[in-house]
Amino acid sequence: MNIQYANYVASDYFYYKNPDNENFFFCSTDKFSPNWKKTIVLSKDYENAFDEEFTEPSTNITAEFLNSKNLNDVLTFTKKYGTLINTKLFSPNYSETHNASALSGMVHAECNLDKNCAYDLMLYEHFLFYQYELFHLQQLHSKLASLSSNANSASFFLSLLNATVYLLINPYLDLFCHIEYLEPSIDTIVDDNFPYFKLRYELNKNLKTNHEPVDQYLRKAYPIIEDSNKISETFYSLIYEIISMFFDYDEKTFPNIFSYPLFEEYFSYEKRCMDNDYWLKSKKLIIQFAESVFNEILSFHLKDIHPLSKFSIYSTELCWHFPSLAHAIFFDFYVKINENSTYKICANERCNKIFLYTTENSPRKKYCSDRCAHNAANRRSIRKKRQQLKSKSNV
C-alpha cells in the first residue's frame, strides 16, 4: 500500500521558549516558500511502481516519531520531515473552526507572533499530544497482541487495565482542542459514535475547572516511556479522583461493557495486591473494555482520512488523503498492526527504543537489535556473577 504525504519542510528549524507562557515552539529559520514541498514516503507498494523510480524509506517514520523523547529529538524529526501539523496544509473535513486558517491563527497567537507571520511553526505540546496518543495506542496494542501467552496471568490483566486508563487520559488533550477546534463544545469535535472520547473531554474539562494544579501534575505523572506495569500509588491516588468522575457521567452513553464495579475494584489497594482471582474472573470484561477504547481512539485519528483514486491507462492506484503528517503516521500505524506487526519497547534497560516487529515471525522478540540483546545478556551475566560472589562472601 502506498502511504505518502507531501509536506512543507524548511531548510532548517530551531526551538524557542515563549517567555510569556513558558511553552516551547519550533520555528523555521526562513520564511515560507512553495519550494519547501517534499514527499515523505511512509511505505510503498513496489509491485505497482512500474518504471518510476522510488526510494524506499531508510527508517520507520512512526518509530522515529515515537522515539523522539526530548526537544532535540523533536527538532531532528522536524528538520527531517517538517512540522507534524502544517498550518498551510492542514485539511480535515472543513468546519467553521476546524480548518487551516483557524489552526494557523491559534498557533501564531500561542507563539505571540503576528498572524501574518510567514514562518513555519509548531507548538511542542501539540506534538506531544499526538505522540502521547500513539505511544499509548502502541502500548495497549502490544499488550493485546500478547494476550495468548498471558491468558492465565492476573498481573497481566491488571496491567492491561492500567494501559487502557493511560490511553483514556491525555494531559495535552485540552491544548489539542483549544488549538484545533477553538475552544469548542465536545459535540463539534465528535458525535455519539465516540463516547469514550467525549468522556476524555469531560474529564479533562473537570480537571481544568476544579483541579488546576492537577493538570500540571498530570504532565509530570506521564513520562512518555513509562511502562504501565510499573505504576506508583501516587498514580493510583490521582487517577482515582479522575475516574471517580465516571460515576457522575451518564451510564447510558457507554456500551454495556463499561463496568463501574470493575473500576471500584481497580481502586482497591487490597484487591490489587491480594485477589488475583478477581482479575482473572474479570479478564473478558477487561479485554472488551481495552479493545473498545483502543478502537475508538484510533478511529478518531483516522476519521478525516479518505481514499483517492489515481487512475491511468497503465495502472489503477489507490492513494490516500491525509489532513496532516500526524494523520499519515496514525494511518501507517493502523496498516502495520493489520499486517500482523506491532510496536514494542526494547527490553534493554539502557535503550528503551520503540521498534516494529512481526508478531508471526518473531512473537517473542524482546530487543530492537542483536546488539541490544547481546548487551542485555552481558549485564545479566555480570549481575549473576556478582550475586554469586556476594553469596559466597556471606557464607
Average pLDDT confidence is 78
Number of strand segments? 9
Q: State which percent range the strand residues make up.
A: 5-15%
Number of helices: 15
- Percent of residues in helices comes to 40-55%
**How many domain modules?**
1
Written as H for each helix and E for each strand, in order along the chain, the element string is EEEEHHHEHHHHHHHHHHEEHEEH
The poorly predicted ranges are 46-58, 211-231
User: Separation of termini?
Assistant: 64 Å
Structural class, from helix and strand content?
alpha+beta
The radius of gyration over CA amounts to 23 Å
Major sheet description = 3 strands, antiparallel
Q: Tell me, what's the shape? A: globular
Q: Reading side by side through the largest sheet, how are the strands ordered? A: 2-3-5
Please give a quick description of this structure:
With 395 residues, the protein is of the alpha+beta class. 48% of the residues lie in helices and 13% in strands.
